[in-house]
Amino acid sequence: MNVVRRGSLAFLATVAALGIFMSGSASAKLNVMTVQGTPAPGTPAKYNKFKVVKQGPAKAKKILLLEPGTSAGATNFRPLGNALVGQLKGWQVWSIERRENLLEDHSMLEKYLKGDATNEEMLDYYLGWILDGSVQPHFEGKTTAETQYAKKWGLSIVVHDLRKVVNMARKGGRKVVLGGHSLGGSIVTAYATWNFNGTPGAKGLSGLVFIDGAGAREAADLPTAGEAQANLDSLNAESASPFITLVPPLPWAAGVFNAMGSTAALQDPDSRSLMEDFPLLPDSLKPPVSATNLAQYAYAIDADTGPENLQLVQSHVGDLADSGDPRGWVNGQLGTAQRAAQVFTEIDGMDGTSWYHPLRLSIDAGAINNGIATPAQQVYGIKTTMGKRVHLPMYSFDTSLGDGRVKRATDALAAQSKVPKSWVRTVVRKETYAHIDPLSATPSKNDFIKTLVPFLKKQVK
């Protein structure tokens, strides 16, 4: 096995993290609903669709509908969803798998999980071909030229897709609480404040949940109309990628690395990591000793050992073992290495990452402004203007990345909509929680679960 293939297995979680449940076993199956999406200009019909993952009893009368963040997917929420439906009687958890994830190729990951492909074959298929042209067949990522239509996949498309799911969820008189993690929190604000022909999206919802993300910026950070137009002009240049590209020129690379890495960490946790032979990997991401696959993954994404630029995927999951060759991992603190990997692992044709995150969505999200109109919104064509008509219970949770900003945004949204203080619950754990901890921490230690569950029980009758 050459150096690139050997290093790629351990590189996975680290490169992917520069972007951002149960174990992904061959027999695992998800309850998935495919939804016909809002037609986007120029988009092929097969991509005007998206999926919804459902957890919990089908007869539930209350639904927590969750939107993932940047470069994330529906199965991000599987560990959390499993815990919540176990503690909330009569609730389901639904998670959105946005349309961009239909662009992914999970064929070799699925073969690997079923035992029909080896680790080396999986790595060759997704990465080995880059330096070895003789590798056949191999993964062929979507090119900029063939995905120009994805430059239209902005906030309006996401909000109108979400509208379809909310309407489905409300059938039969069911109550719907809308939540989101990271960028998903911004989408929650966008939906709730969206002007649907004079009616705010908040009408028809029973509450909002912001998980380390919300739709407000400091006034100085809001784009002007001129800046907004410049952003669109840059995106619409023929040579510009429609997607966030963390590993130029391959927009899919970060997602591939994370999907392979988290999956291998769970499927083959005790084998010696090959990352120590990968010369391009920064020393800050390498354990000081030879380590197992699981330990290498955990070391890179742990909040204490991973570098600052990996905050988007960090959790508090323990420490390297004191002895052993290769060195293993000792779980501790808020979660486990296994649960952290389960947030991203391959399962039933999906994983917790988005290999192709639309840049337009993130551009648009910068102008939500907690639902107060700005000139930039008109340039982007987004209708987040009803921020004074969101009369709903609200919950928010800040980690070290939110740093109190999510609380401030939630308090401001509640105040401008004259929401009673008794309807608002804000939790700040910026000193002790990392960005992924609310999704991955062990339920018995997870302050997010411990505070969200009583909030939902109290506010949604």
What can you see in these coordinates?
Residues 1-27 have low confidence and may be disordered. This protein has a single domain, classed as Alpha/Beta hydrolase fold, catalytic domain (Rossmann fold). It contains 15 helices and twelve strands. It has 461 residues and is α/β, with parallel strands linked by helices. It has helices at residues 3-17, 78-87, 107-114, 119-126, 155-169, 183-193, 225-235, 253-267, 293-301, 337-342, 359-365, 375-380, 405-416, 437-440, 447-459, and strands at 31-36, 49-55, 62-67, 91-97, 175-181, 195-196, 199-200, 207-211, 318-320, 329-331, 394-398, 424-428.
Keywords:
single chain; 461 residues; alpha/beta; Rossmann fold; eight-stranded mixed beta sheet; two-stranded antiparallel sheet; 15 helices; 12 strands; 33% helix; 13% strand
Brief summary of the model shown:
By secondary structure, the protein is of the alpha/beta class. It contains 15 helices and 12 strands.
What is the β-strand count? 12
**What characteristic shape results from the CA principal axes?**
globular
Specify the structural class: alpha/beta
Proportion of residues in β-strands? 5-15%
Count the DSSP helices.
15
* CATH class placement: Alpha Beta
Q: Compute the separation of the termini in Å.
A: 58 Å
Q: Mind describing the biggest β-sheet?
A: 8 strands, mixed
Average the pLDDT over all residues and give the rounded result.
91
